[in-house]
């Protein structure tokens, strides 16, 4: 069984368990997440490997972090994640990528990411639930942060924090790679 197969099965098991724990029907989760009922069924039956965007929408609707949906087994109180076990969630042929480094369920999901954006590339996100915050710290290059209709340069050594309940995104408008660490805190589902 490949790593992707194991991840797909873990996602199926965890999505179904979390949906049932919250008492959500398939239709209720579809309405909350904007993901079709048919897609949720395929995911819960481990028949598809959904996009990052779909996985984020489902996690947000359930009030959990992506790491909770991808967790292959429950570990001890201290969770150590070796570099080779970090989950590459997206990548491009040019070398940009987003890697989920670690996550926790402390007063709502909390995730830490490492992102690399190659020159001319970027990533956008739909609004997250109200009360979701993103923090980022750029270590190499200069990221261009867009929150709503506003754009902010974030050079190496600088950090930014914002409520992510509006469309937002990150771009590399420069000539060298951008490397940044990002933390996402999602409020618990009500």
Description:
The model has no long low-confidence stretch (mean pLDDT 86). Helix content is 27%, strand content 34%. The strands form 2 sheets. It has a 6-stranded antiparallel beta sheet. 24% of the residues are buried. A hairpin with a 3-residue loop joins β2 and β3. The termini are far apart. The protein is an alpha+beta fold and 190 residues long. The longest helix is centred in the N-terminal third of the chain and has 19 residues.
Summarize the entry for a quick read.
With 190 residues, the chain is α+β, with helices and mostly antiparallel strands.
Give short descriptive properties of this protein.
six-stranded antiparallel β-sheet, 27% helix, four-stranded antiparallel β-sheet, single chain, 190 residues, 5 helices
Class inferred from helices and paired strands: alpha+beta
Helix content: 25-40%
Low-confidence stretches: none
Strand order of the largest sheet: 1-2-3-10-5-8
List the total number of helices: 5
Radius of gyration of CA atoms, rounded to a whole number: 17 Å
Main sheet makeup: 6 strands, antiparallel
The chain-level mean pLDDT equals: 86
SSE blueprint and pairings:
Blueprint: H1 3-21, H2 26-33, H3 37-44, H4 52-62, H5 66-70, E1 87-91, E2 97-105, E3 109-117, E4 122-125, E5 133-140, E6 142-147, E7 150-155, E8 159-163, E9 168-171, E10 178-185
Antiparallel strand pairs: 1-2, 2-3, 3-10, 4-9, 5-8, 5-10, 6-7, 6-9
Helix pairs in contact: 2-4
